[in-house]
Amino acid sequence: MDQLLNDFSPGLFVMQAVILLILILLMKKFAWKPILNSLDEREQGIQGALEAAEKARLEMKNLQADNEKALQEARIERDAMLKDAREIRTKMIAEAEDDAKEQASKIIAQAQEAIEAEKRAAVAELKNQVAVLSLEIAEKVVKDELSDKNKQMQYVEKMLQDANLN
User: Does the model's pTM come out above 0.70?
Assistant: First the structure.
C-alpha cells in the first residue's frame, strides 16, 4: 500500500475522475434510459404474467366449480334415470306376471272346457253303447219270448188286456 501512495499522481487522479464523470454522463444519456425502459418493460411483463396467472387461477377455480356442478347434475340425472329404469322394470315384471296369470287362466279354462267336452262325449258314447246293448238284449229277450207260439199268444192277449184297461 505504501508503494501505491508513493506513485499517486493528482493529475492522473483528476483525469481519471473527469473520464469517469464523462462515462457516467454518457451512460446516463445513452444506456441508462434503455436499461431502465427494458427493466420497466420486464416488470410490466412480469406483472402482466402474474395478473394473467391470477386470472387463469380464478377461471380454473370457476371452471372447477362448473365441473363440480355439472358432475352433481349428472349424478342427479343418473339417479333419476336409474329410478325410472327400476320403475319400468317393476312395471314390466308386473305386466308380465298379469299376462302370465291371464294366459294360465285361459289355458285352465280351455282345459276345463276340453275336459267337459270329452266328458259329455264319453257320456253320450256310453249312452249310445248302453242303448245298443239294451236293444240287443231286448231283441234277444223278445226273440226268446216269442220263439214259442204259445208264448206269443199269451203276450198278445196280455197286451190287449192292458190296452183295454187304459
Answer: no
